[in-house]
Specification:
This protein has 154 residues and is α+β, with helices and mostly antiparallel strands. Among the domains are: 30 residues; 73 residues, no CATH class. It has three helices and five strands; from the N terminus they run H-H-E-E-E-E-E-H. Strands 1-2-3-4-5 form a five-stranded antiparallel sheet, covered by helices on one side. A hairpin with a 2-residue loop joins strand 3 and strand 4.
Length: 154
């Protein structure tokens, strides 16, 4: 009976030794990666270096966030929505040769260019738009239609 007991205890100790060996090997490899390139530094100075690098990276991340926010805010001022509508304003003229072109930014501010084709010539009109509404001149039905379609697409 005693030899079986000794074998069981020996087996338990061998398993325990393997577990400790694996744990020690993982800890040693982690420490080796941590101290890689550190010439005779102690663990405290290595950790301080890591923390200072983290602070530096956090500052870089904050500056990148500010840059992206500024870029996004400035991007709203660029032409983002473009709409085009062709139509026939006069029944005696064939084809949809007249058109309305809207060029507005993220806040629906920009211009609308209208071209009305007739037999005597083409007339061009430009109107300012602020927040989706005509400022100096009332928008025609076609201009309102193209502006509304532009809002739906974006």
């Amino acid at each position: 009976m005693v030899p079986n007991f000794v074998l069981i205890i020996s087996g338990v100790f061998i398993v325990w030794l393997l577990i400790l060996t694996i744990f020690f090997w993982q800890m040693f490899s982690h420490y080796a990666r941590l101290t890689k390139g550190a010439n005779n530094k102690n663990l405290k100075s290595i950790l301080e270096d890591v923390l200072s690098k983290i602070d530096l990276h956090n500052k870089d991340i904050e500056s990148i966030k500010k840059y992206c926010d500024n870029l996004e805010r400035d991007g709203l001022l660029h032409v983002q929505k473009i709409g085009l509508h062709r139509f026939n304003p006069f029944k005696d003229t064939g084809g949809d040769q007249s058109f309305v072109l809207s060029l507005v930014d993220g806040s629906d501010t920009g211009i609308i260019i209208s071209a009305l084709y007739s037999r005597s010539g083409t007339r061009w009109y430009a109107k300012r738009v602020v927040n989706g509404k005509g400022i100096e001149h009332e928008l025609t039905d076609e201009e309102k239609k193209v502006l509304k379609a532009t809002k739906k697409e974006n």
